[in-house]
């Protein structure tokens, strides 16, 4: 199926049902009524594919579900009210009391909390490993390991895992794999084809791309998705609203053009920053100096616009002068929007924290993460240049 068919038509073919409306209607209804008891019984038989109640399935959400599954090359998908909900549902559906999870060393913060705090309460144990090395993943596996949680690249320092290799060693042992694919998008990395079982996204980021919806997706085989649906999806109820699904269908239409433009602008911004004396070190999987650049070339089919760099300065005061001087990048959490976004790690430390004091296993205090948006490259470079002069 070609990309523009997925984005423009899939799930929307029957426009005649809606008097030819080109943009799909928002089914703003919590419930769906039946003409007969027999029809209602049939609805209960399969709440995932019929329309009974919007916590289970909704026609507007279903359009998006088809598109997202097709983009990931997955048999099926579920939409959630956040990326954190999608990841948690995938994990909870696979593990039970006494099971063990192997997880990448630096996952998204709430993925870490899910394992460390929530699942620990229910007797599920975990090991965090430096999964840039597949043999470290293998060494961490115990007889009770049921799941390997991956995030490639992650979104602060962009470490990657060899997905085909980890998937193969997991399959050989009957262990499930779940990958957070938010950074690469389904356009640039197809984990299902590499043998990964469950693929999650924070759709809040590139998939929706407009900083107006918090959303998550989980993709996998029909059987696995049905397990997730019958378990955490229906019981925890962290579903996506029909209105958010409509917004996300709209956001998704321009994913390929946004990603193409962002990649082009990012290459120019990176070239500028790398040559700048105040920029100490830069993390970006597509930079030839990246320690995993060979894996990038093999595993990623295109570039994203999220990267990090450290500012050459003695204390975080220098970082603050740089960040406060920027006028075209919004300082905030999150990333992947149409607008350039900036996250300074200094914001989670007290003022004037010495850069030399940072712990080697933590993200450096002088690190700044930039998410390049759709501004003109020259505008961003000029803004970064004047702000770097203030350090
Ligand atoms: C933001 C993010 C999440 C969480 O997604 P929400 O939509 O904020 O719940 C998960 N993984 C990664 C890599 C993220 O950047």
From TrEMBL:
Keywords: Aminotransferase, Pyridoxal phosphate, Transferase. Pfam families: Cys_Met_Meta_PP. InterPro entries: Cys/Met-Metab_PyrdxlP-dep_enz, Cys_met_metab_PP, PyrdxlP-dep_Trfase, PyrdxlP-dep_Trfase_major, PyrdxlP-dep_Trfase_small. Its cofactor is pyridoxal 5'-phosphate. It comes from the Bacteria. GO terms for molecular function: transaminase activity. SUPFAM superfamilies: PLP-dependent transferases. PANTHER family: CYSTATHIONINE GAMMA-LYASE, TRANS-SULFURATION ENZYME FAMILY MEMBER. Belongs to the trans-sulfuration enzymes family. This is Aminotransferase class V-fold PLP-dependent enzyme. It comes from Tahibacter amnicola.
